[in-house]
Design a protein that fits this description.
This protein has 430 residues and is of the alpha+beta class. Helix content is 47%, strand content 14%. It has three domains: 101 residues; 97 residues, DNA polymerase, domain 1, CATH 1.10.150; 175 residues, Orthogonal Bundle (hpI Integrase, Chain A). Strand 3 and strand 4 form a beta hairpin.
């Protein structure tokens, strides 16, 4: 059992007219070659398997690769001169890369990090990360928008020179609210935005560690700003205002906002996300008769769902009625909400929502808040979080619990219970 150390190599004597090898017992595949002139070189020995299409079989190839010379007193990694500790580390990393089906001595983290700019790495990250995680196009687009803000400030910094101080300074600067010089009415910077960009930088640098470009994540330990909570669901009076405006326009036969009106109603009736509604295809709806009337099933394909998996929603009679109306209005298109210019494409977005919520005096309400509203009121009325969780296609009930919000009525109901208990105890006490 031989462990290759500097002391061990110092004790070796050159072979007489021949070269011999010594293998390390603690790191299989790592060894040294001792030449006739007493020169000592480190090597790794490994095998790869490749499919030979000509022979129609898997072939194993042995590799014996030298990667540096030994010098105990004056190691210089830049010139491929190592002592035993440095060589063992290099060999260990190289053998790990072999197990990952990578070339053992491609640019390591120090070499790659010293030459690659952060902006170039972000471009590489978005391509690899999106493919590895099968990210939705909308998510990738959001990442690119944030990178457009990050690159002008940190983009020219080499990846290995990116420090906690530089990232923290960027985070602080992005939290300051100031007017946009290009659009005076628009504001730049917010704590929420700064926190989102910091989280993305952390994520990207974690992948850089995984890809062996750097050893440590400089963004770790930077504290996020406290964010002001926002009610993300509509109270009864707000929903009534929205419904009153919708009913008024439907009675008038208004065509201008018809797609927006139908999308809002479907969001409140199904709890579906805007992406799911926008890209709903007619072929995935099926209907049947029941005691309640005509009901249906909506099968959502993976390319429109957040989970990237098939999901199913149950449709009530009122929902089926709206969907069938949409099918009649868009008979020439396979989409429930087709593009205004090309019926063979889905709608890009419900741009009319911005104007419509202002028209209904609900300017602060976001489209996604309708999903929160539907789930919150469903839980308050039914008291069954589990059923609502299934309807929203949440994998974990705890997600639904965070998604739903107690309102004043629920608190008043709880306060009334507290009061009843106290009065009952006092009455029994005499």
């Amino acid at each position: 059992m031989t462990v290759i150390t500097d002391n061990y190599l110092s004790s070796l004597k050159p072979g007489r007219g021949e070269t011999f090898e010594v293998y390390d017992s603690n790191l299989p595949g790592f060894g040294v070659t001792i030449g006739e002139d007493a020169n000592i070189e480190f090597f790794i020995k490994y095998q790869t398997k490749n499919w030979n299409s000509g022979l129609g079989k898997l072939e194993t190839t042995m590799h014996h690769q030298h990667f540096g010379a030994w010098d105990m007193d004056s190691p210089n990694p830049e010139w491929r001169i190592f002592n035993c500790d440095i060589a063992r580390g290099q060999a260990s990393l190289a053998l790990i890369r072999v197990r990952q089906n990578k070339s053992p001595f491609e640019k390591n983290e120090l070499e790659q990090g010293s030459t690659q700019k952060f902006s170039d790495f972000l471009d590489e990250f978005i391509e690899k990360h999106a493919a590895d995680r099968d990210l939705a196009p909308r998510t990738v687009s959001g990442y690119r928008e944030m990178f457009d803000q990050i690159k002008p400030v940190l983009g020219e910094v080499p990846l290995c020179h990116l420090t906690k101080e530089k990232i923290s300074a960027y985070h602080r600067d992005r939290s300051v609210v100031r007017p946009d010089p290009r659009t005076p009415k628009k504001k730049l910077g917010s704590r929420v935005r700064a926190n989102r960009e910091l989280a993305l930088i952390k994520c990207a640098l974690n992948r850089a560690i995984e890809w062996e470009y750097i050893k440590h994540n400089p963004a770790v330990g930077i504290t996020k700003f406290k964010e002001k909570a926002r009610d993300v669901w509509a109270q009864d009076d707000e929903v009534i205002k929205l419904m009153r405006q919708i009913q008024k326009d439907l009675n008038k036969g208004t065509v201008q906002y018809r797609a927006t009106i139908d999308a809002v109603r479907l969001a409140l009736l199904t709890g579906a996300r805007k992406q799911e509604i926008r890209m709903a295809e007619k072929k995935y709806f099926t209907f049947r008769q029941s005691e309640r009337g005509e009901v249906g099933i909506w099968k959502k394909p993976p390319y429109i769902t957040k989970s990237r998996q098939w999901e199913t929603s149950s449709l009530s009679p009122e929902t089926v009625k709206i969907i069938k109306q949409r099918m009649e209005l868009t008979a020439e298109s396979p989409w429930l909400f087709p593009h205004r210019k090309d019926p063979n494409k889905p709608r890009l977005d419900f741009t009319g929502w911005q104007k419509y919520r202002k028209k209904a005096n609900c300017e602060h309400l976001h489209f996604h808040d309708l999903r929160h509203t539907a789930s919150t009121h469903a839980v308050m009325e039914s008291g069954n979080v589990y059923d609502v969780s299934k309807a929203l296609d949440h994998k974990d009930v705890s997600t639904t619990e965070r998604y739903t919000h107690a309102d004043l009525r629920a608190k008043e109901k709880a306060a009334a219970c507290f009061e009843d208990n106290m009065l009952r105890w006092m009455e029994k006490a005499g």
